[in-house]
Design brief:
The chain has six helices and two strands. The protein is mostly helical. The protein has a two-stranded antiparallel ribbon with strand order 1-2. It is elongated, with a radius of gyration of 18 Å.
């Protein structure tokens, strides 16, 4: 989703499974691990039926996890932007040759503008703010 937004300006409809996984992880952070700013958490393990049930009955849950999902999307986009020229170079190389090795991809991903992240505390919770060096957040 983030790469589509960075390179195409929008995302297609194929991102649903990624959003489901991200939402599931945010729910686990919020309810199971107790990272929701309230003093309650699920005992025991993570049960998929419980996640689906909570998603339907806990209205404030979606409001709590939306900022987490938005923050992580922004972070992903900043990371992709920091590698943009490298990704475009790899794309051109792939078009020209028809294949790339894994090592060529790793070697080709050199951030031309370092990504800087800082932790901050806001409304009782900690989060991060990532920007590409030289740009304002």
């Amino acid at each position: 989703m983030a790469a589509e937004q960075v390179f195409l300006g929008e995302h297609g409809d194929g991102v649903a499974s990624n959003l489901r996984r991200a939402t599931r992880l945010a729910i686990i952070l919020d309810r199971h691990l107790g990272m929701n700013g309230v003093l309650n958490a699920w005992p025991g393990g993570v049960d998929e039926r419980l996640i689906d049930s909570v998603r339907r009955i806990d209205g404030p849950l979606l409001n709590r996890i939306e900022p987490i999902l938005q923050e992580q999307l922004a972070r992903e986009k900043a990371i992709i932007e920091s590698h943009r020229a490298s990704i475009e170079g790899l794309w051109l190389e792939l078009i020209g040759r028809g294949h790339l090795t894994g090592q060529e991809i790793v070697d080709g991903l050199r951030p031309e503008r370092p990504l800087t992240c800082r932790r901050r505390k806001r409304a009782g919770r900690s989060d991060s703010d990532c920007t590409v060096k030289g740009e304002q957040s």
